Amino acid sequence: MLDPALHAAVDELHPLAYGEPPAPHHDLPAHVRAASAIRRLQRHLVIVQDDVNAFAIFDPEDGDVFPVMLPRGPGERRTFDDIIGNKRHKMDLEALALLPDERLVAFGSGASAPRESLAVLSRREPPFVRDGAELYRSLRAQSAFAGSQLNIEGAVVAGGRLLLFQRGNGAVSAGRAPNNAIATIDLETFVRWLDSRGPLPPLLDVTPFDLGEIGGSPLGFTDAALARDGRIAVIACAEDSADALTDGPVLGCRFGWLEPGGALRMTDVIEDGRPTRLKLEGIEGRPDTTGEFDVVADGDDPLAPSLLGRLAVRE
C-alpha cells in the first residue's frame, strides 16, 4: 500500500485566529479550534470545527478569518470542551460536503447520540442544524461500514454520488472490530432527504479498507477530497486512543490517492524532513493544480488555534 514513488510534505503552516475576536455573548474563542474539515466555496475556504457551533471562513486573498454562527446547543452554549465540562454535548462535526447547489453540509461523526446532526450553510438562508438520527441509525446498522463504532470523518461529492468515509478508530464492541470504509449514497436521493422531500437514502455500496498502522496504532481516515483529475485524495492518521470518543497522541499521518479502479496508494506525510505528528483532519484541493492541497490540523488543545497549511504531493 505504501508507494515509494509517492511523496507528500506539509508546510506553510500558520495559526487560524479571527480578524476580530467574537463578542463574549457569541460564546466563541478568539481563534479557530478543533478544525476538522475544509471545503472551497468560490474564493473562500470554509472550515468546520468539531467542538464549536460555528463555521470559520478564511479568505486566501487577504488572510482574514471570520465566524458564521450556528444555533446554540445544550445549555445555550456554542463552545464545548472538558474545561467547561460539556464536551459530551458537542455535535462533533467532522466532515464537509459541497453540494451542486453550493450548499455546504457538515456531518456529525455519529459516535454518540449528540453527534447525529448535520449543519447546513447556504447563502440563501441562515445556517441551520438538521436532525440526522435516522440516517445515523441506518449507517450504524451496516456493520461492514460502521464496524464497532460509527465515526464519519469525510464526505465527498463525486459523479452524482455522496461518499462517506468511516474512520476505524473505535474500540472492539459486541464482537465487532473497528474498520475503515467508504459508503456510497445516491446524491439526488440524499438531497431530497436532507430537504425533507424524500425517504432515507440507502447505502448503494460499502468498500472496506485496511490502512495499516504506525507504532502499533491503526491508521484511520480523517478526510478526503475530490481532485481535478477525478481521483480522490485521502488523509489518514494513527492516533493512540482508546476509542472514537477519546483523543490521544498522533503517531503519524499519511496521504493517499484513491484511484478510479479502487486501488489506494499511500505515503507518509513529511514535515521538516521527517514524518509529521500533526493531526491533519481536513483536506481540499487548490485551484488549477492536482498536486497541492489546503489542509487543516487539529491539535486537540482548546486553548490553541488550529493550523492551516499546504500539502504538496508529487509522483
CATH topology: Neuraminidase
Low-confidence stretches: none
The oligomeric state is: single chain
Instruction: Find the count of extended strands (DSSP E, 2+ residues).
Output: 22
CATH architecture: 6 Propeller
Give the number of helices.
3
Query: Given this structure, which CATH class is correct?
Result: Mainly Beta
Beta-strand percent range: 35-45%
Q: How many domains, in number, for the residues?
A: 1
Largest beta-sheet details:
10 strands, mixed
Helix content: under 10%
Structural class: mainly beta
Q: Please state the CA-atom Rg, rounded to the nearest Å.
A: 18 Å
Order of helices and strands: EEEEEEEEEHHEEEHEEEEEEEEEE
Query: Distance N terminus to C terminus?
Result: 15 Å
Overall average residue pLDDT:
94
Assign an overall shape.
globular
